[in-house]
């Protein structure tokens, strides 16, 4: 059995063709993440973008090395000025801003996490896929929250007053995690369903 869904869809031997295949998949994957980053779904308490859904899907479908490389390419594209970040934003300023930690290194680590588990068969069962995507989402949020907390801790940063928290880290959790829990759960479920559907199609075609 192929190690990942990408291996099942496009199998090649090692060598120059392998590099061509991996490069093509990385480009397509980065464009997929860029497209999903522009999608906003009205939700309570905040609108939901589809970025983390794309990150989890790419990581699980491609494995940890290619998944992480794809998100690194996506980050590089945005840093160089291509409008691939949410709201068609771009530039180093996004990565250095309050939400930059979610992208770098959050997206890369999240994709690597789910990709590592997928290569060990966690994408073959629904409940394991859901657990893998949950762990990947948590890994993604850790550097994002840590980076956001530094802005609350800075003397000229946003005030924690009104967040209901007493510390910079608490304020980062309140504003950078809690509003996105419902949307995060839905995206975990959707990423799980998409990859499982992909395996279903492959298994039916294989007979």
TrEMBL record:
Record key words, sorted: Cell membrane, Membrane, Transmembrane, Transmembrane helix, Transport
GO molecular function terms listed in the Swiss-Prot or TrEMBL record: biotin transmembrane transporter activity
Pfam families in alphabetical order: BioY
InterPro entries recorded: BioY
Cellular localisation: Cell membrane
Keyword Acetylation: no
Main location: membrane
Record Gene3D superfamilies: 1.10.1760.20
Membrane-spanning segments: 20-41, 53-74, 94-118, 130-155, 167-195
Membrane disposition: Multi-pass membrane protein
Family assignment from sequence similarity: Belongs to the BioY family.
Name recorded for this polypeptide: Biotin transporter
Species in which this protein is naturally found: Rhodovibrio salinarum
């Amino acid at each position: 059995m192929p190690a990942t869904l990408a291996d099942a869809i496009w199998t090649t031997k090692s060598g120059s063709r392998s590099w061509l295949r991996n490069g093509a998949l990385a480009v397509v994957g980065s464009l997929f993440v860029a497209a999903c980053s522009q999608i906003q779904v009205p939700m309570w308490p905040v609108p939901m973008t589809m970025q983390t859904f794309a990150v989890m899907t790419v990581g699980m479908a491609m494995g940890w090395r290619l998944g992480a490389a794809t998100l690194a390419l996506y980050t590089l594209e945005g840093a160089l000025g291509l409008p691939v970040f949410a709201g068609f934003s771009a530039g180093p300023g996004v990565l250095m801003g309050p939400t930059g930690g979610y992208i770098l290194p959050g997206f890369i680590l999240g994709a690597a996490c789910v990709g590592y588990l997928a290569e060990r068969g966690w994408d073959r069962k629904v409940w394991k896929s859901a657990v893998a995507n949950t762990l990947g989402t948590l890994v993604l949020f850790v550097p994002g929250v840590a980076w956001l907390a530094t802005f609350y801790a800075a003397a000229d940063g946003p005030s924690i007053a009104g967040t209901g928290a007493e510390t910079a880290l608490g304020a980062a959790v309140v504003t950078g995690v809690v509003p996105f829990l419902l949307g995060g759960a839905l995206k975990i479920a959707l990423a799980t369903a998409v990859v499982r559907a992909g395996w279903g199609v492959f298994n039916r075609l294989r007979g």
